[in-house]
Amino acid sequence: MFTDNQTKGRKLHARNIEVFTYEYDEKNMVAEGTFKEDILVPIYVSGRKRRPRTVHHMGIQLRIECSSLTITEIKVQMPGIPYDECLETADSLDAIKGLKIAPGFTAKVKKILGESKRCLHLTALLLAMAPAVMQGYKVFIGKNFSGGGVPTDVVENYLVDSCWVWRKEGHLADRFGQQPVKL
Q1: Domain residue limits at 161
Q2: Which residues contact 171 (CB under 8 A, 6 or more apart)?
Q3: Residue 110 domain-assigned (yes or no)
Q4: Who contacts 86 (Cβ-Cβ below 8 Å, separation ≥6)?
Q5: Least confident window among 97-101, 108-112, 132-136, 172-176
Q6: 131 and 154 both lie in a single domain
Q7: What is the value of pTM for the model shown?
């Protein structure tokens, strides 16, 4: 991506988060997120040389009820973890079932998960999934909305103040505040 050639040596580490959204049925969609973290060079741990490897590989699947953007089901898979004890956190996200993906979601998740056993990597994946769920939701409703765009209540509740170009006093929020947004 960068063309200024600031990278002079070999890659050391890679963290990848990938999120897909899918149709589930007429009222629900599914979001699947994958978190994969690789050490790309040999390293020493407790005086022993360790080979390059995947240290974290985990996934989250959310079923989202689209009329309210409520998480109705959550599944976690952890096929690649550094310690067996990590599996003890696999059910830590159960506490967010019933939560709506809406403004304030990140703060609510941090509060809920801060009070339980949690995995920082699952939390990072979940928080990265929320904006992707919103993008998927826009596609989900845009493919069915007869007016050809996102309803004004979605614009007001989810797009306005979500980023600089959608700031309340900006031209996009003003322009689309009264009519559906064309995708």
Answers
A1: 145-183
A2: none
A3: yes
A4: 78, 119
A5: 172-176
A6: no
A7: 0.85
